[in-house]
Every structure is written in structure tokens, then in C-alpha cells.
Write a structure and sequence with these properties.
Elements lengths: L2 H20 L19 E5 L2 E2 L3 E4 L2 E3 L1 H12 L7 E5 L5 H7 L4 E2 L7 H4 L2 E10 L1 E6 L14 E5 L3 H10 L4 E5 L6 H6 L4 E5 H8 L8 E3 L7 E8 L3 H16 L2 H10 L18
Parallel strand pairs: 1-5, 1-6, 9-10, 9-11
Antiparallel strand pairs: 2-3, 3-4, 7-13, 8-11, 8-12
Bound molecules: glutamic acid (GLU).
């Protein structure tokens, strides 16, 4: 899998969809999709460049977030063929929900108090932890050791914010639009580390082109409780999604999604969280 190609393709898709929006075209596939089961479509925000979580490939969309979203959509009355996927980069998620571009977002989206002022969250459905991706011959023992080092992360993410506010305020942080944009810099030596959730980093480290080159530092720098973002005030949608997530754990579909998507990267995930149970 060539992530540069994937993110170039994602950029094209994003550019095309922005053009469509700018032209005022509305094909009825947008955010106001109704409540399902009536032949209508649902639009779901995911990431396009995160192997194991949300990945756009020539054959379709894969990853844990994609499987969770597909399960939830089914419970809301939408078959897989009724789903329109839309890329929602980290910095645009709250606005995408506000604008009604998407009906819900499942995109490694951590539940935070700040974000809860703008959107509502169902879940959590996964607990991840912030970590560092570094070159295999490197070692970083603790978060504070990144002070002074060149670090890459994504604008609008908790990963970038945690570094600036807390973990290593003196790190030379470069903020990109997507995580895959940080990978070239890590390979070439332009940056010393890429920081975000261990779930995402494990996916990158296991890619053929990076195997043996990159590793996770193994630091547990934060708790990232992944939620499904919905438009603020849409309690009906929120309740339905929470019920769907509970059912997904009960009927073991959650375990299957874990094995299918995290198995290849050998990512050791935390057990399924209880709905409403946020680990601070
Ligand atoms: N889970 C973190 C967040 O929501 C980092 C990953 C991401 O940017 O999606 O900010």
C-alpha cells in the first residue's frame, strides 16, 4: 500500500467534493438523510489515510472505524450500499457536523470537553493512547525527551494539543493536515517523530514500505476515548448510535472488527469500553 498515492487520491476526492459543494450541487446524498429504511443514503465521516482504522483503497474503504460505522448504519436502517463515505480531516470534524456535510463521524475522534461544546458524542467505542512513531534505530524513553526535537502531528488533533500544552511544550512541532503527510519526513530524517494515537501509529508501522524502518516508542502519553460525533442536540441519533454500539459489543461483532483490523498490525487494543465510561 502506497500511502502517498492514497493521500493524493484522497486530496483529489476532497477537492472534487469541495467543488461540488461550492457549485451548490445537492444530489440528495448529503447530511439531511432522514432516518433510514426509506431508500435514502447516509453520509459518514471517516479518515482516508489511516490503515487499520479508516483507509480508502482502490477496492473500497477498510478499517475498524469503517466497520463500526457500517454496523451502526445498519442498525439505523442503512445497508452498506446506502453509505456515502466522506473524508473528515481532524481539524474539520466539528465544522463538518455543524454544516451537515455528514450524518455522523467515526474517525479516531476523541471525546473531549472542548469538542463537546460544539458536537455530541456517542460511545466511547475504543480506548487508545497517544504515542510516538520513531525510526527503528532511535529510542525515546519519556514524553519530556521530545522537548527540542522535531515532531510532526496534525492540526486540530488532541495529539498536537497535548504536546503543546503538556507533554513537551518546547518540541519543534510541525502540524500537517493528515498524519500520512508526516511519514516522508520521518523516513528522510526531516522530523524525529510522528505523534498521535498508538492505534494509528501501529497501522503505519506495519505497512510494507515502513516495515523494519519505524517503531512505536511505547509511551502511554494520554487516554483517547474514541466517540462517534453527531450534530449537537441530535439526541435521537445519539441514543440510536449508543444502542448500536452496545449491541456490536454484545454480539461479538466488535471483537471480529478488532481481529480483522488490528490483527495485521499486531495492535494490542484495550477491552471494549462501556458506553459513557470515559477514561480521563
Ligand atoms: N484521537 C485524536 C483526536 O481525535 C488523534 C487522532 C486524530 O487526529 O484523529 O484528535
Amino acid at each position: 500500500m502506497n500511502l502517498r498515492k492514497v493521500s493524493a487520491a484522497a486530496a483529489t476526492v476532497l477537492a472534487l467534493s469541495l467543488t461540488a459543494t461550492a457549485c451548490g450541487s445537492d444530489d440528495g446524498d448529503g447530511g439531511d438523510s432522514g432516518d433510514g429504511g426509506d431508500g435514502k443514503k447516509i453520509t459518514i465521516g471517516i479518515k482516508y489515510d489511516q490503515p487499520g482504522l479508516g483507509l480508502k483503497t482502490p477496492d473500497g474503504y477498510t478499517g475498524f472505524d469503517v466497520d463500526v460505522a457500517t454496523y451502526v448504519a445498519k442498525e439505523l436502517g442503512y445497508d452498506a450500499k446506502d453509505i456515502t463515505w466522506k473524508e473528515t480531516p481532524s481539524a474539520d470534524r466539528e465544522e463538518a457536523l455543524k454544516r451537515g456535510d455528514v450524518d455522523f463521524i467515526a474517525a479516531t475522534y476523541s471525546i473531549t470537553d472542548e469538542r463537546k461544546e460544539k458536537v455530541d458524542f456517542a460511545g466511547p467505542y475504543l480506548l487508545a493512547h497517544q504515542d510516538l512513531l520513531i525510526r527503528s534505530d532511535d529510542n525515546i524513553a519519556k514524553g519530556a525527551d521530545i522537548n527540542g526535537k522535531k515532531l510532526c502531528s496534525v492540526a486540530g488533533s488532541t495529539s498536537a494539543q497535548n504536546i503543546k500544552n503538556d507533554i513537551a511544550p518546547k518540541a519543534q512541532l510541525r502540524e500537517r493536515g493528515t498524519y500520512s503527510e508526516c511519514l516522508d519526513g520521518l523516513a528522510s530524517g526531516a522530523v524525529d517523530a510522528l505523534t498521535t494515537d498508538d492505534s494509528i501509529l501501529a497501522g503505519y508501522a506495519s505497512q510494507n514500505e515502513y516495515k523494519g524502518k519505524f517503531k512505536l516508542a511505547g509511551l502511554n502519553l494520554s487516554n483517547e476515548n474514541y466517540g462517534i460525533g453527531v450534530k449537537k442536540g441530535d439526541t435521537e441519533m445519539l441514543d440510536k448510535i449508543n444502542k448500536a454500539l452496545e449491541k456490536m459489543v454484545e454480539d461479538k461483532s466488535w471483537d471480529k472488527a478488532v481481529t480483522d483490523n488490528f490483527g495485521p498490525a499486531d495492535y494490542k487494543n484495550e477491552p471494549a469500553p462501556k458506553i459513557g465510561d470515559i477514561v480521563k
